[in-house]
Amino acid sequence: MRAVLHKDRVKARVVRSDRKGRPEGRVVEIVERSSQVIIGRLLCESGIWIVAPEDKRYGQDVMIPKTATGAAKPGQVVVVELTEPPALFGQPVGRVKEVLGEVDDPGMEIEIAVRKYDVPHEFSEACIALARALPDRVRPEDKRQRVDLTDIPLVTIDGEDARDFDDAVYCEPAKIGKGKAAVPGWRLLVAIADVSQYVATGSAIDIDAYDRATSVYFPRRVIPMLPEKLSNGLCSLNPEVDRLCMVCDMLVSADGDVAAYQFYPAVMWSHARFTYTEVAAILANTRGPEAAKRKERIADLMNLHDVYRALLKSRERRGAVDFETVETQIVCDEAGHIEKIIPRTRNDAHKLIEEAMLAANVCSADFISQGKHAGLFRVHEGPTPEKIEILRNFLKVSGIGLGVSDDPTPSEFQAIAKATKERPDAQQIQTMLLRSMQQAIYTPVNSGHFGLAFEAYTHFTSPIRRYPDLLVHRVIKAILAKTRYQLPILPRPGEQHAKLARRLDKNLASRVAEPGQKPRKLSADMQAWQAAGLHCSANERRADEASRDVEAWLKCKYMREHLGEEYSGVVSAVTSFGIFVTLDAMYVEGLVHITELGGEYYRFDEARQELRGERTGLRYALGTRVRVQVSRVDLDGRRIDFRLMPDDAGQMGRMSKDRELTRESGEKRSPEDRIDGVAAGGRKQKNAESLPRAVQSKRTTGSKVAAPAKVKARKPRRRS
After folding, report:
1. For residues 37 and 25, what is the distance between their CA atoms, to the nearest angstrom?
2. pLDDT at 566
3. How much is the pLDDT for 606?
4. How far is it, in rounded angstroms, from Cα 204 to Cα 128?
5. Number of C-alpha atoms within 13 angstroms, CB side, residue 610?
6. If DSSP codes are grouped into helix, strand and coil, which group holds residue 162?
7. CB atoms within 10 A of CB 506
8. Architecture, CATH, for domain 551-712
9. What gap in Å lies between CA 680 and CA 661, rounded to an integer?
């Protein structure tokens, strides 16, 4: 292993299994060296220059010849390019390629993250030149063959800090049907920025947008998918200016069903820019101060609220998963340091826009399917058999009377959440339900969306920040023009996404085959769409990982100022090596290592998600309330360590023993005694569709529940 680094491709041979049955091996051949640059701090030790990698997965320091340090100074953060790979008896050698600055410079954590995860953050010169050549406003010739909606009072509703507005909405009462058979309903218009008008397939802007695949959101900074002239200017549906858009025009019944829809290109004029907070205040009080400022728009907002309630009925009938989880927002000062972490509240305005966007996305998927045109669907598959088994065991030991079938439906999950919503551990149960699901992916073969309970679903509503949405717009336009959109044959992404590639390959081949027949060979067109789906899915993961890395760094730096302070919290994850605790006041998660739990043998019970002391019966389970002290913060490792307060441990021990005595005496137990809770995770979720992305946990395994592992809490070792 001394001859290889993180991201090198190797050939390995399994030589034995360890005492837990896990395979162990040795590297027999180095297949390919990674070309990834390394970010770290430049240090001079005894006259020798080295770079200590910021990413701890690189297990070796990089030697830097004195002539290859460039303008870098000791202690600065630099980007290193390897000139010599590591060897069995020699360290890797490199040269300083770029100097990022001092480690405490504002925004340094973002500069590190974009390079660490290889996020494209600079547009090509050709892209910038092409963006400059675009017009500053919508020209008369751009409006030809478009429906004029400038007299329709479409409005945008977004967050206070939003800068790009890619969707606008309008609703009015309407009759569905003809004559006496007509029934009351609503006409709902969802207008989306027409990015495809300005970004031609294969152009310099398109190449850069495909490379990024998505905008990346950090606290106080966004790395956009499109140049600012498009994302914040020409394509953004800013108020009181003409903008080109693609419209999904729907008729929605009183039961929330979309009775009819049509797509068409249009030109619009946004009549107002609303915030979620403002709309929620108007809906709550139409005579309040917020409503007084927007008198001309109150009736339109009330119509939107009415159609939202109808769409909500449809969601409930489908049994779509709708969990209430805690989202957090990091508030930073001018220097980029955390001032506070606050919970985000989802009000009716958020949900109203969410349901309108979901309806438009479903219509888009149906339109592509009916047009028999290839495209990218947003697919969310049901839980795997292994995760179903883990969930069943958890529900059983938690005293929940409901279970899940071998081929579960979203309604089963929603029924469990609804039946347990009054329990003290409702959020913890929801978290376990979420963790049992898979991540959503982009793929050209539709197999439905499990979480939202849709037979077909795609992404149409955010082409400014997501490349799959831009592709969907191009396909819809091609169907309207009775032509066929030809996706360029795109190269497959690198091997860093091999696992996702294998999953997409396997699923795609099985879906295109007829039941009982062998998978047939994919056409070149389908392979191109498959490659595009793989690329967009992988880069979506990359953006999430980079965002989480920055947030973790900021939280660690924030908690360094609170070393030694005590806080109350809840156990949010249990592992064989300790418990993770999320603080109530700060929404920050840290580890209480098993060595901090006292001189006791602990068994990790995966089904109950708990650590149990053999001698004392002391239990630490998901949802357990504890009091901890901030004991250590590792900024480079993005890790926060807590120490359990002794008084709290004693109290937990007495509680656990009381419960055991209650069980042995056969007395009827209260709901609290039957529950092994789980804490809701703090992952950020933009909408209901993004639930699958919030459920992946590195601390749970995909295997069947194993026998509880015995772990001894040893004396804490000195950490380097």
Report:
1. 27
2. 94
3. 80
4. 8
5. 21
6. coil
7. 11
8. Beta Barrel (2.40)
9. 29
What are the sequence ranges of the domains in the chain? 9-103, 125-382+442-514+522-550, 551-712
**pTM of the predicted model as reported, rounded to 2 decimal places:** 0.83
The count of residues in the chain is: 720
DSSP label of 445 = S
**HSE-up of 126 (CA within 13 Å, CB side)?**
8
Structure tokens at 587: 């929404």
- Averaged pLDDT in 10-residue chunks for the chain of 720 residues: 92 92 93 92 92 90 93 94 92 94 89 92 95 94 94 95 91 90 94 96 94 93 94 94 97 95 97 95 93 93 96 92 79 80 87 96 97 94 87 82 86 87 77 86 93 95 96 97 83 46 49 52 82 94 94 91 92 90 90 86 84 88 89 90 72 41 33 29 37 35 39 44
Residue type, 27: V
Q: Which CATH number fits domain 9-103: 3.40.50.720, 2.160.20.10, 3.30.565.10, 2.40.50.700?
A: 2.40.50.700
Instruction: Give, in order, the Cα–Cα distances in Å from 71 to each of 53, 78, 111, 388, 592.
Output: 19, 10, 18, 56, 42
Q: Which helix (H) or strand (E) holds 369?
A: helix 348-370
CB 706 within 8 A of CB 606: yes
Pairing of strands 48-53, 93-101: unpaired
Phi/psi region, residue 578 (left: phi>0; alpha: psi -120 to 50; beta: rest), is: left
Distances (CA, A) of 606 to 405, 611, 616, 669: 20, 9, 19, 22
C-alpha gyration radius of the chain: 28
Q: In this structure, what are the phi and psi dihedrals at residue 293, rounded to the nearest 5 degrees?
A: -80, -15
Task: Say how many CA atoms lie within 13 Å of 115 toward its Cβ.
Answer: 20
Cβ atoms within 10 Å of 487's Cβ, excluding its own = 20
Residue 54 — φ and ψ, nearest 5°? Answer: -70, -35
Residues 6+ apart with CB under 8 A from 330: 219, 338, 341, 551, 554, 555
- Paired tokens of 93: 């050698």
Within 8 A by CB and 6+ apart from 390, the residues are: 436, 606, 607, 700, 704, 705
Is the fold of 9-103 the same as that of 551-712? yes
